[in-house]
Amino acid sequence: MTGFGRAVRLALGSRGLVAGCFVTSLFVAVLWASNLMAVWPLVDAVMRGQSVPQWLESEAETQRTELAERTQRRIELGLQVAHASPDQHPRLRQLIADSKRESGYTREKLEWNAWVRPIAARWLPSTPFETLVCVCAYVMIGTLLKNLFRVLNLVCVARLGHVTCFNLRKDYYRQLLRLDLSEFSERGRGDLMNRCTTDLNEVGTGVQTLFGQAVREPLKMIACFAGAAWVSWRLLLLTIVVAPIAFFAVRALAKSLKRANRRALEELSGIFETLTETLSSIRLIKAFTLESAERARFHDSAKALYERQMKIARYNALVSPLTENLGIMMVMLAALAGGFLVLNQETHLFGVRISETPLTHGHMTLFFAMLIGMSDPARRLAEVFNRLQMASAASDRVFEVLDRRPTIVDPPAPASFPLKWRSLAFEQVTFGYGGGASVLKNVDLEVRRGERIAIVGPNGCGKSTLLSLLPRFYDTTGGAIRIDGVDVRDLRLRALRSRIGIVSQQAHLFNTSVAENISFGRPGATREEIEAAAVQAHADRFVLDKLEHGYDTIVGPGGSRLSGGQRQRIALARAILRDPEILILDEATSQIDVESERLIHDALKRFTVGRTTLLITHRPSTLTLADRVVVMDHGVIDDIGTADELYARCELFRTLCSGGYRASA
Length: 665
Ligand SMILES: Nc1ncnc2c1ncn2[C@@H]1O[C@H](COP(=O)(O)OP(=O)(O)OP(=O)(O)O)[C@@H](O)[C@H]1O
What we know:
Elements: H1 3-12, H2 15-36, H3 39-44, H4 52-83, H5 89-123, H6 128-178, H7 181-187, H8 189-211, H9 213-239, H10 243-280, H11 282-287, H12 291-343, E1 348-349, E2 352-353, H13 361-402, E3 423-431, E4 440-448, E5 452-456, H14 463-468, E6 478-483, E7 486-487, H15 493-497, E8 500-504, H16 514-519, H17 527-536, H18 540-546, H19 564-578, E9 582-586, H20 594-608, E10 612-616, E11 628-633, E12 636-641, H21 643-649, H22 651-657, H23 660-664
Parallel strand pairs: 5-10, 5-11, 8-9, 9-10
Antiparallel strand pairs: 1-2, 3-4, 3-6, 6-7, 11-12
The structure holds adenosine-5'-triphosphate.
């Protein structure tokens, strides 16, 4: 099933709203056609200076005369048969049969007329002007009612579209939270954001169009179609021979439109990508005076989108004239055929019977009114068409993400977390991003419970990658990480991650208050516990002294109103509040000044006692926190030992410390 089909199935779940859309559309359509029907009494009665009862009376008179004439004609034809040569007999008999059939129809009309006349005489106005007043009142009330149902219809349709969009957006967000981290680096934030905003809006608009215009307009057409068929279904068939041409032409455009719409959405994702990057690196752009280069990059993305949009505009521009020309062809065909029949009081066209009895001016006007009543919805359907193509392209993109199956999920039969575990082991761990070259190669490392391990190594050697495998941000491609022999992949993700606290260099904060940011470490923590954690992380002083509303100060998007060091201290308080069994510190104190560093060191020293800690640092001074130091290089472990041992025997370690470790130890 296509993406849009699935969105529609979701919408169909709101049965009440769907029923509301259909019922109100039906009323709009019936009232639309019945309002147009008012032209019939207007032309056949009022314009001839008659009231409806008078008109019915004169119609009855005409029909009686017709009957008498036909009977007379049949007698004459019967006489002709007696004197004609045998080869003329079939033609004459056919004429007699036709005349009999026509008399039958006229008799039926006469009976109907006789039945309806007393009712019309009793209920309908008796003068032409009163009839006109009645027709006008009928049209006015009909239009009022039609618009009332239209309003109801628009509200139902909008609600259905927005509810579907709302539900899909929530699913999409849930899916974003479940997706593997690798998806984010592969697809890019801009693209994922665009799908959740623009694309989903298009899906909502598509659902609204499908249950709104795409139901209302065809129903209006069907109502007019029925009215025109009532006048003469044969004439109607003749006039809609052009319809299949329109169908195939529009279908050919559909595919190109969907493709163009999909490309446009992709280009829009590119713009989102560029914008998010620019906004998050605006300082860098200014500092390195990259404005013109960035402008050029943005120009390329915007130009690509502009070109796609122009392509869509060209296709769209084609749809409307195409349907309009075919519509006009249809009406003109009807005008020629109908005009011929009425002006000549004929019932046949090219030997084909079009109506049982000659059509009146009122009939013909009604027929045209119905055709015109069909052409307006047909024109609107051309717009519907593009919106549905857009929605179809957008839904494919949304469902592409919704259908992604994350690989890092809970195992089918999770093992229980070893409560009194004693060792955490990286066994022959190998890993490469996206199945690419190995960033880590056969890493073996055993950490005892409560041990503090520092990991050092040159940039890009795989330190952060190694630690990101423990909370299963990524899964190892070879080897395993085991806690007391239990593979972390056999544990429930929640059970594993709830025991780990992470403080990283970026120290991400949410755009909310300081207190709430700290409480993310342990949702539900009391204010006292939050403040105690802040005191331990040496964050309380700046929070109380420098922030206007203390713990209730909003930190700005990503914590932008705080300095790097302040953000790190809040992130540290968050980890302290979590009170994790395993603490991961990835350059957690890199932005803290020398004065604060000493204080934080003391805090960390106290906090990490008896707590399994894995810390990455480039600061030799931080090494004093560690029981053992692991030196990594090019994805492998170069050496392990105490800082003193390594200083004595490991060349790389000495280079990394470049004397700093000794100085600070
Ligand atoms: N999301 C990612 N996708 C692809 N490759 C990545 C990704 N993250 C890191 N890498 C690559 O993996 C290698 C190891 O990166 P990692 O961040 O683990 O190094 P590191 O030792 O922590 O470096 P640093 O000291 O600079 O923080 C690098 O070559 C890097 O280019």
